[in-house]
Design goal:
- This protein is α+β, with helices and mostly antiparallel strands and about 280 residues long.
- The protein folds into 2 domains: about 140 residues, Glutathione S-transferase Yfyf (Class Pi), Chain A, domain 2 (Up-down Bundle), CATH 1.20.1050; about 110 residues, Glutathione S-transferase Yfyf (Class Pi), Chain A, domain 2.
- It is built from 9 helices and 4 strands.
- Strands 2-1-3-4 form a 4-stranded mixed sheet, covered by helices on one side.
- Helix 2 links the parallel strand 1 and strand 2.
- It starts with 8 loop residues before the first helix and ends in a 19-residue tail after the last helix.
- The structure holds glutathione.
- The site of glutathione has 10 residues, from loops.
Length: about 280
């Protein structure tokens, strides 16, 4: 798994011990600000969820979906865009790194949220507790606008291909280059991106969106990847006007335009401050 705070092998056990110690310390000296009893499978007490973006009042009764993620664009931004596009009134808990650039603010919650596969981003939606970014995107599509999963089986298959193809480029090549930056990794990313963006461009043809003329959830992921890639390599889309056009088209969707102009919108940063090449 990609880890924004790369650990050398020998550091892993030390880190585990530190996490356990941190947890024990946390349990014994919880302050008013940090005191959150284990959430288990229900979120009933409004004070259990803390955060900087209207999240303090989150209750199951509100049934407002809650998105948990770092206070960055990262993988979470696609989920934010999709929620906004679907006109879902959602709350957020945006985690900050500590001043020492550790994960501790997240670790304080990680095992208490009742998540099967604890990770960021996570989404609470009524009784549902979901992690894995693309599972969240598909869940939101399935429950709010199923056509975003593709109106026909052949489109759904195309979506799956693009989704997996793109995730590798984003999570392995791109994240590897920005979090573990070296000149060689940056060069490797640019070379790989040129080839893979070329394939996506050829695949898209003159369509409005990546799998045809109907938008699907994977266009949200593609938009955010292209946005972030451009911040790393400003010229990466120069040879691919259809992909560049998708960026403009996406930003001009009325729901997206409104969201980008709203105070809730997070413009940046793209990465955690712990990245070797923060964006
Ligand atoms: N496969 C997961 C990867 C999620 C992931 O790597 N999350 C990073 C931030 S982008 C994180 O900090 N996770 C917290 C953790 O590993 O505890 C997904 O697609 O959602």
């Amino acid at each position: 798994m990609f880890n924004p705070l790369p650990l050398k092998k020998y550091q892993v056990s030390t880190t585990c011990i530190l996490i356990i110690l941190n947890y024990l310390l946390y349990c014994s000296s919880a302050t008013e600000e940090t005191c959150t009893k284990p959430l288990g499978n229900s979120v009933e007490d409004p004070s259990l969820i803390k955060g900087d973006c209207q999240s303090s009042g989150h209750t199951m009764a509100d049934s407002k979906p809650l998105l948990g993620y770092w206070n960055i664009r990262g993988l979470g931004q696609t989920v934010r865009f999709l929620l906004a596009y679907l006109d879902v009134d959602f709350e957020e808990k945006r985690y900050e790194l500590t001043p020492e650039l550790t994960y501790d603010n997240w670790y304080a919650d990680k095992e208490k949220l009742g998540l099967d596969f604890p990770n960021l981003p996570y989404l609470f939606d009524g009784p549902e507790k979901i992690t894995e970014t693309r599972a969240i995107l598909k869940y939101l599509s399935r429950t709010r606008k199923p056509e975003l999963l593709g109106k026909a089986a052949e489109i759904a298959t195309k979506i799956d291909m693009v989704d997996n193809f793109l995730y590798d480029l984003y999570y392995i090549e791109f994240a590897g280059a920005v979090y573990g930056y070296t000149d060689e990794l940056a060069k490797a990313f640019k070379e790989t991106a040129a080839v893979r963006l070329g394939r996506l461009s050829t695949f898209m043809k003159e369509n409005e969106w990546i799998t045809g003329n109907d938008i699907t959830y994977v266009d949200f992921f593609l938009y955010e990847c292209l946005y972030q890639f451009k911040k790393f390599d400003a010229n990466c889309l120069d040879k691919f006007p259809n992909l560049a056009g998708l960026i403009t088209r996406f930003e001009n969707l009325p729901e997206i335009k409104k969201y980008i102009g709203s105070p809730k919108f997070l413009q940046g940063p793209i990465t955690l401050a712990s990245a070797a090449h923060p964006l």
